[in-house]
Amino acid sequence: MSKTLQRITLYITLSIVLLWMTGYAAFILHISTVKPDSNIKNTDAIVVLTGGSNRINTGLNLLSAHAAPELFISGVNKNVSVEKLLAMWPAGEKQKKQPCCITLGHKAQNTTQNAQEAREWTGQKDVTSLRLVTSHYHMPRARLEFRNTMPSMNILIHPVIPDDLEIEDKGFWHISFEEYNKTLLTWVRLQL
Q1: Domain limits for position 46
Q2: CATH number for the domain harbouring residue 72
Q3: Which end of the chain is more exposed for a tag (fewer CB within 10 A), N or C?
Q4: Is the pTM of this model over 0.85?
């Protein structure tokens, strides 16, 4: 390999690494500052993606506050029922919603499947707007998947910050690093 070709290869590699690092810094800044879309605007439904702390409780709180008339929770373990979720919800008894307004999706195993499962459910309910609830670090990838799967759906985001995931913790950096790379791969896959 000639020195010129080696130099070009080095510059390209350094440029890619610098671009990746800049993107990761922007990702960290975004997830650290992202806020829920307007809390005063109601939607037809609330969709919660399981997998992180505070997600389900946030969805139940939004339903109780009448942010939407129905709640769909995607990716729920098949052994979990609405009654079990309500029993673990730390709201007062009189505040708890009846199971009629809560639907559990048991099929989804990943974010792509969450979006597909939610599309099936919203299609049955004639939903045209939803509030998407997931962890702040997961929201960029979830939003990509949902916008791809339901392009005409009006989607408001409601990112949740897990109790056990502060920016000072090593766990935050591990999960944000992993999620950034998954988000990049999702973006590339959806562009192809």
Answers
A1: 34-191
A2: 3.40.50.620
A3: C
A4: yes
